[in-house]
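Margin note from the TA: students keep mixing up input and output lines. Inputs are the sequences; the output is the structure of the whole complex. Example:
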Amino acid sequence: AQSVTQLGSHVSVSEGALVLLRCNYSSSVPPYLFWYVQYPNQGLQLLLKYTSAATLVKGINGFEAEFKKSETSFHLTKPSAHMSDAAEYFCAVSETSGSARQLTFGSGTQLTVLP
Amino acid sequence: DGGITQSPKYLFRKEGQNVTLSCEQNLNHDAMYWYRQDPGQGLRLIYYSQIVNDFQKGDIAEGYSVSREKKESFPLTVTSAQKNPTAFYLCASSKSWDRTNNEQFFGPGTRLTVL
């Protein structure tokens, strides 16, 4: 069985500061991992994905994430926050085997960017 | 432009009524999905379809029904049996059910409110 834990349902950072959103996963087999962003009353947009190639994945809007198997983590970072980054962020996992090919989502982290 | 459309954006329903949410995609994707989103709970899978004329129950299928008669369409009916239908509903699609192509693309969502 697969699961995702996002530590911190709300994160606040100042504009220009580092953004760090935490995601830990549980999977019995090598996972595929995703980060999505959701703006108010909109659908989800894919930021980046890990599919067993490079462990450091670069995405859109200056975001990146590093897959750390030993820590079962896939934290999302951005060096300098912008006001437009304020949104909700979801981490998701997809397992490689069996019928568990749907995505399992974390409960989300709301990012607030302070001026 | 290719994408996923959902209609209506807002929907109000009286208790005891069935309502149908529309989801259409022109991405030529085989797989489609319906999620329910409630505050603080992330996304929960209602139904998914790997291919036309086939669909499977997700984690919270009770009180919902779907059909997949055409590749591009995957309507969701919220029946009167759903005890707490007020939520934000998201439709998604992926190129295939195969794990290497199951990155999901999301529609803009429908917000359903039961009066």
